[in-house]
Amino acid sequence: MNRTQDPSLLISATVLTAGVIFLLFGFRYPPSVDFPQHVAQLSAWVHLSDPSYGFAQQFEVNRTTPYLLSYILARPFVSWLGALGALKLVVLFATLANVGAFAFLLLTVEQDPWVSLLGFPLTFGFCFYYGFVNFLLATPLIVAAVALALRYARQTRWQEGLCVAGVLGATLLTHGLAFGVAILVAFLVYVGEKGPPRWSSLRSLWPWVAPTLVAAPWLLAFGSTGVSSAHPYQWAPRDLPGGLTHAWNRCLDLPANLLSIGQGDVAASAFGVCLIVVAALSLGRYSSSWHRWALYSVAVWAYLLSPFEVLGVAFVYERFAALVIPGMILLAGPSTPVLGQRTRRLLLALLPLAWLAILLVRERAFNLDAKDFDEAIADLPARLRVRPLITVSTTRAFPDVPVYLHFPAYYQAQKGGYLGYSFARYPVTLMRYRPGVDPGMAEDEEWKPQLFNASRDVPRYECFIVRAERDLGPTIFGAAAPTVRLVAHAGAWWVYRTS
């Protein structure tokens, strides 16, 4: 039987897809840090001309940003699912694209397509929990670009070249960093598979030239105007031997970053190790061809050596964890895997299913806790000027994930108004502040509730949405307390209004 027509694989993929659908749509809120801000961005785009939201006075559409793909995919579904549901649908698209890209690469390198089932749990890793929706879409595009480059090298036809150029262009619509990785690795794979191009055959490189020419003006502009990094390299070879501590900690974090955030999530660490081991034992012995190591090498070395932040883009190195197992697939050779077929396929089906079951239990617990937010803001009027103050950002359901950090952005998505910390302050976002609009809180102040200043902030805002273990009103508002009153309280959420 042709491996691409394996009914057992189709059944397994269908069951896992159903689990992901329930994970996303069976509960209201996903445990994703930046997700509320993306929902607010989408809501602002859709309701820009609706006076009941008050967005037109604050925002303008950023027509120069390439970071559009997630919003373009979501917008047609907003009237049906709402902004929150439409973006959850984008996460579902990313999951299916991840599995599909894995399968496409596996078939290209003649490996067992059952390994693609690992794409289900691997979608819900570091990028998902921090809400990097664009990078979540970028990961399968990088993998697809690499597979297409291999095929283009083997049969250099314009149809294959057009596919390479199209996928690279789509990657630019997700993230500039992802575009750089995709175009570099795809080029190395093509050159290695085909051999160095002769001058007479340089025209075959047009699939890389075309998207580079399109991307260059924007990338150069961003490189000259982006925010300088406040975080230096965590370590570099010159720092040896002391710098090895940083690399060792990153190595320890890797299994957990595949499925969560850091070593604090013991279950994610254990399952991450299992996924790496099962993937390694389910693939053929590593190829000796240098270009087949390109994706794995870029993923591993970028994970170990990249800084935390580049030009205002934070959490840089953690994003490369998602490319490690695709890199392992690319470098797999034609030899027989260590695990027998029945054992291999059983593990490849059961491990993702077991992890999705754990996520379902966790998400239920998280949403039982998160429902207090809906109760707290239920009676708030629309179009308020809101200042978030999150002193407790984590939840026991998902260890170490500061999932509540941007939760007040859901108020803006639902009811409009002005939010003290919005992604509209950044030059690369779809919806940005109009010239002259006050961006509100200082940079990184959302992470530092101790910097709240009542004398400065009480006159600037009408509402304060606070998450804390107790009523902090008398403490945080100080002399301004008589002009601020508690209007709602549910669980750890405390809502105050100015008189």
Rounded Rg:
24 Å
Question: Count of DSSP helices?
Answer: 18
The overall pLDDT, averaged over residues, is 91
Assign an overall shape: globular
Percentage of β-strand residues:
5-15%
Overall number of structural domains: 2
Low-confidence stretches: none
By DSSP, the count of extended strands is 9
Which secondary-structure class do the elements indicate? alpha/beta
Report on the structure:
By secondary structure, the protein is of the alpha/beta class. The chain has two domains: 3-30 and 64-360, no CATH class; 385-498, no CATH class. Helix content is 52%, strand content 7%. It contains 18 helices and nine strands. The strands form three sheets. A five-stranded mixed beta sheet has the order 5-4-7-9-8. It has a two-stranded antiparallel ribbon with strand order 1-6. It has a two-stranded antiparallel sheet with strand order 2-3. The mean pLDDT is 91.
Descriptive terms for the model:
single chain; 499 residues; alpha/beta; 2 domains; 5-stranded mixed β-sheet; two-stranded antiparallel ribbon; 9 strands; globular
Question: Outline of this structure?
Answer:
By secondary structure, the protein is an alpha/beta fold.
Helix and strand layout, with pairings?
Blueprint: H1 7-25, H2 35-46, E1 59-61, H3 69-74, H4 78-108, H5 119-123, H6 126-129, H7 133-154, H8 158-172, H9 176-194, H10 206-225, H11 244-259, H12 266-282, H13 294-305, E2 309-310, E3 313-314, H14 324-330, H15 341-377, E4 385-390, H16 409-415, E5 418-419, E6 431-433, H17 454-457, E7 463-467, H18 473-477, E8 484-490, E9 493-498
Parallel strand pairs: 4-5, 4-7
Antiparallel strand pairs: 1-6, 2-3, 7-9, 8-9
Helix pairs in contact: 1-4, 1-15, 2-4, 2-16, 4-7, 7-8, 7-9, 8-9, 8-10, 11-12, 12-15, 13-14
